[in-house]
Structures are given as structure tokens and as C-alpha cells.
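Per reviewer request, we include the raw input and output of the structure prediction for the construct analysed in the revised manuscript.
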Amino acid sequence: MKYADYIREIEIDSLWSGRKHIRWTLDRHVNILSGVNGVGKSTILNKVVTPLLVSRGKVDYENGVRLVLSPDDADAVRFDVIRSFDRPLINHEMTARLDFKIATELDLQIFNLQRRYLDYQVNLGNRIIQVLQSGGADAAAKAQEMSAGKQLFYDIVDSLFADTSKHIIRTENEIRFDQMGEVLTPYQLSSGEKQILVILLTVLVEDQQPCVLFMDEPEVSLHIEWQKVLINNIFRLNPNVQVILTTHSPAVIMDGWTDRITEVSEITI
């Protein structure tokens, strides 16, 4: 598979029962879908994401959804999906077999991200070792630069959680927090804290590769100050990401993103 840098256009043959043809030309970086409840924002995202999940990123044009990719000869998309609603999991038998107390969808996302975070650290460590073994005069500086993304992630999370005296324990292989001497797992966080952790950790483990990030109402449970800096923090961690999101919150877009809003009516034929 040749992966795309980003999606240039989304075309959907039918949004509901043969009605509403959708054609949406996308910005390279930020795309915000707006509209009243029930107009089809989440449906548009789900129409795009569902076949990508089935095919693991391979673009299939036989499902009524056409993606125009850049470059033109790309045939697959690296993507991540953020589920923001902290609903209880239905499959209690599955969660009972897991080592941690995983009761909600955000818990399950965190559990899966911990595995990806370990892989990310191993890959990063191998690259740093290769640079240091090269023995160049600037090897140490290059190694430090390579680890800057992880350090930035720690700094951003610590800054957001500062009011509750939580900070990431940087010597742990998995994400753990210290709160005034008590060690906390991510599953002990509030819904809003879990949600912002899921978003930022997802972006970190993309390892600055071109990737499409789908988010349906990511502001749910987030403090308004966290909403304001959400998009900027995403791009600080991965400047190569393309964000496609739905929102009802003015705070998400107030920091320079109002020109990236698209109403569903504007892309409906």
C-alpha cells in the first residue's frame, strides 16, 4: 500500500436512503464540520471511517464513498479515530478478562494506546541508538531532537493537569501519574482528563507521520480552556496530521480556525 499524505476530497453517494449526495473539498490540515443536530455530521464521518476500519486503511471505491488522495497514486490512508463519549462498555465478559479495570469506551481506548505507546518508545529508542552509534559530531544533539516530541507531550499534559497537581511519571514505560505522592493509572482519571489524554497520546504515537485524525465532537467533557488550545496542541505534536472533526463548541474554533468551518448544507447536492 502507498499511503496518502492527506485526503483532498470526500464524496458520498448517499447519506440516507438514496438522498443527499455529499462532496467535500478538504483543507490540508484542519477541517471542521458544523450544522444543527441531526443534519448528518456524525453520519458523514462514520461513512468514511467504517470502510477504512474494515480495510485497515486501504481505499475501496465500491462502498459508495470516494476519497481523492494526495498524492494521486496513493491507495491507502493512515488514520486514527477518537471516540469522545465515555459510554459504558457492553461486552462485560471481555473487560472482565483484562488486567485493568476497563469499564468505558475511553478506558478501552487508553488500554489500546498503552500498547501503541510502548511500540512507539521502542521504535524511538532504536532510532536514537542508531544515531548515537553513528559517532557523528552532532549525534547527541540529533538524539535529543528526536526525543523532543515525547518531552513536548509530557510538558503539554503536565501543563493541562497542573491545577489538580498531577504530572506524568517520566521514568515509567506506561503512562502513570503522580498526584502529591500517590501513583494513579489513567483509568483513575476523570472523563475529561481521559479524553484529552486519549487525543494527545493518539497524536504522539503517530510519530509525526502523515495521518488523518477523525474526531466526533472532541470537546465533550473538556474544560473550555482545554477546548481553546486543542487543535494547536495537536499540531504541536504532529505538524503532518490532517484533522477532520465535528463540533458544536465555539471554543474549539476561536483560536484562528473559523475559516476552516464547513456547513453540511454547503457540501450537500
